[in-house]
Specification:
single chain; alpha+beta; 20% helix
Length: 193
Amino acid sequence: MAPGAIVNELCDIPLKGISMQYNFLSPFSKDTVVFNDRQYIFNKSKFKFKKCTQSIKLNLSRTYTSKPLVYFNNEILFPEIALVNLFKNNNWNAFWIDSFHKKLWDTMPANNELSEIPMGAFLIFSKLTIEKNIFSQGAWDIFAWYGDDYLFVECKGIPSKDKIRKTQLQFFKKSIKNGLKKENFLILEWDYE
């Protein structure tokens, strides 16, 4: 193994730095989050969706039906699923970590729950979540991977004034201790066109 290689303790897979394989999200900027007098600087990208204004009936609980809906590729979706689809359209794999409902989704919740994660991605994902239940420790909204590149994406909607929470910073710090780099994290700020 090369000197300085970062090793996943569960499976001895070297973790590579994130490439620019997600340049479909550019342009990039930096976002500074201050918590307890400490600054955290993250890569940030922005994306705009067409707002869904039509009334549609979702056969889901109110915790889902109160979420915003957007148009993406002629579909009406939650922003998180639209972003999962954006990654998929650019040859990445991705899923939404629905912490509130304790589910992993790669399609709208009215469809089937995510059923399969490739082994390499699963081992990286499980290494970060093995100590506690991922859903209770501030996991970021989307986990995406492209080959050996892994990315946690936090979706922040401008319309809802969503901000990074303490538990999400704790998840970030734990992930860094477990071998990921700052480049494996991205804040994706979305808004309506």
